[in-house]
Each structure stands twice: as structure tokens, then as C-alpha cells.
Design goal:
By secondary structure, the chain is an alpha+beta fold. It has 6 helices and 7 strands, in the order αβββαββββαααα.
């Protein structure tokens, strides 16, 4: 595999040495998911405006964005006085009525660019990619932040074709020094409809996934119901009824009276007189 600097150089050939200078999509080596639903990563115009090498500190690059169907392909980004347009995302309806300034960054001399040999280092990767790439649509809060200062770079619209242009601005005079052509149309990705989701295996629909999930959970609920029935049956066997029967047997027992009471006992009331005394009592009645 060729070194990373060679891959980037090959990706930049269309911008730096092509027949027409225009912004290009970042190489998949550095931006694997590009474009996304709301962002587009572009290669910065490095070593393109060589005539300004001695004055890099006095120049900035403006990146303009435009919805492809919003204006003609030759839409201008400067006024009659050669001053770059300052139209914002809000003023142009997100680029639908004209180009807006999406990003502004300093022009870095080629000799000051970081080495790509360390791009594999996680601690340096972000800095290196920022030096070589620019992401349009990267700021998701600038529109809602009333205190935001600077160029607002809000997310792009999904499934929409945009074109982009780099403009070199002399910060000493505030005038346009040079510019590239508009890029070819670059389309952001479209969100996948719910019904079109590939639900491998068998490419089941969303409704089938829901039904399958419900059926898959039924054995669990069935097992839970059986366990509950067993527990309830065990509670019935040794439950409150058994305790009530035990209490009733205890309350039916006679309560013994205390000693010394003059009231005859239940046994004495029902006990008959002795047989000999009964016969004597009968003979007296006959006399």
C-alpha cells in the first residue's frame, strides 16, 4: 500500500494540477463516510495559490456553498467592487437562493503543513485532518446560539446537491485575489425509509420484525405464568384456611372455672344419684 502522503497527493491532483481548479471530495482514505446526511468533507486548496507564498499571513480562504438548482453554475461570489459576498446561511435559505459563505480559514504555506506520517497516531490525527480537510455543515449549534461569533457553518440538507467554490481574499484590502471554479454537484446522502431497511436475514419488513420479537418473547411470559400458578397453588394448600380451622378447634374447648366457685360444674349437673339412694327414695314414696 502506498504511503498516505502519496494517496493524498493523488487525490489532490484534480484540484492542484487539473485542467480546471475546483474543490474536490476528500479521499476515502481520510473520510470514509463522505458525504453524510448533513456534511461534506472537501480537500483544502493547498499549494494552489502559489503566487501568494510570500504573503500567506495576509490571506484567507473563503468557502462558498450553493444548492445546485438555486443559481446558475457561474454564480458570482463577489460584488461589483470585487468584494467577497458576506451572505449567510439564513439570508440565502441554506444556499437555495444564492451562494453563502460557509467556512473561512487561514491559508497555510505548504512548508508548514504537518507530516502525514503521524496520521495513524490518535493524538495527532484530528490536527492533521483539520490541516488538510474542511467539513461543510459541521456546526450544529450556530443557528440557535445568539452569542455565536464568526462564520456559521450549519448542517446541510439531506438528499440535496451542492456546489462549492474556494475564494482567496486579501485581508489587507478586503478584496478577492483569486478563486477556483465551482465544484461538480455533490449530493448529500438520503435517509433510508423505514420500510426499506434491510432486515437481514430474509429482508423482513419492519412489521415482521415486530411480530417476530413478540413471538420470541411469548415463551418467557408463558413460563412466568406457569411459575406464578404453581406458587399460588402452594399458597392455597398452606394458606389462611388451614389457620382458621386450627383456631376454631381451640375455641370450642371448655374453659375451666377457677377453684372455689359455688356454681356446680357441668359434669355435676348431668350426673345422676347413686343407685342405692334412688331405691331408698322410691320406698319412701310408696309408704
Amino acid at each position: 500500500m502506498p504511503p498516505l502522503w502519496a494517496l493524498l497527493a493523488l487525490g489532490c491532483l484534480g484540484l492542484c494540477w487539473g485542467v480546471s481548479l475546483q474543490p474536490q471530495l476528500a479521499s476515502v482514505t481520510f473520510a470514509t463516510n463522505n458525504p453524510t446526511l448533513s456534511t461534506v468533507a472537501l480537500e483544502k486548496p493547498l499549494c494552489v495559490f502559489d503566487s501568494t507564498e510570500a504573503l500567506y499571513g495576509s490571506y484567507e480562504i473563503y468557502l462558498y456553498a450553493l444548492v445546485d438548482s438555486g443559481s446558475p453554475r457561474n454564480a458570482s461570489v463577489r460584488d461589483s467592487a470585487n468584494t467577497p459576498l458576506s451572505a449567510t446561511f439564513q439570508q440565502t435559505g441554506g444556499g437555495s437562493t444564492g451562494p453563502y459563505k460557509a467556512v473561512a480559514f487561514d491559508l497555510t504555506p505548504c512548508s508548514d503543513l504537518p507530516s502525514l506520517d503521524a496520521v495513524g497516531d490518535v493524538s495527532q490525527a484530528s490536527e492533521i485532518l483539520d490541516a488538510y480537510l474542511v467539513r461543510v455543515g459541521a456546526n450544529g449549534t450556530c443557528l440557535s446560539d445568539p452569542n455565536f461569533q464568526g462564520v456559521c457553518n450549519p448542517p446541510l440538507s439531506a438528499a440535496t446537491e451542492y456546489r462549492f467554490k474556494y475564494v482567496l481574499v486579501n485581508m489587507s484590502t478586503g478584496l478577492v485575489q483569486d478563486e477556483t471554479l465551482w465544484s461538480n454537484p455533490i449530493r448529500t446522502r438520503q435517509s433510508t425509509p423505514y420500510a426499506a431497511i434491510d432486515t437481514w436475514p430474509g429482508r423482513r419488513s419492519g412489521g415482521m420484525i415486530v411480530i417476530t420479537s413478540i413471538l420470541g418473547s411469548l415463551p418467557f411470559f408463558l413460563l412466568l405464568g406457569v411459575a406464578g400458578a404453581v406458587i399460588l397453588s402452594l399458597m392455597d394448600v398452606g394458606g389462611p384456611d388451614a389457620e382458621t380451622t386450627h383456631d376454631s378447634q381451640i375455641t370450642q374447648e371448655a374453659v375451666p372455672h377457677s377453684l372455689g366457685t359455688s356454681e356446680p360444674s357441668y359434669g355435676a349437673v348431668n350426673r345422676g344419684l347413686p343407685l342405692d339412694r334412688a331405691e331408698a327414695y322410691g320406698s319412701k314414696l310408696q309408704d
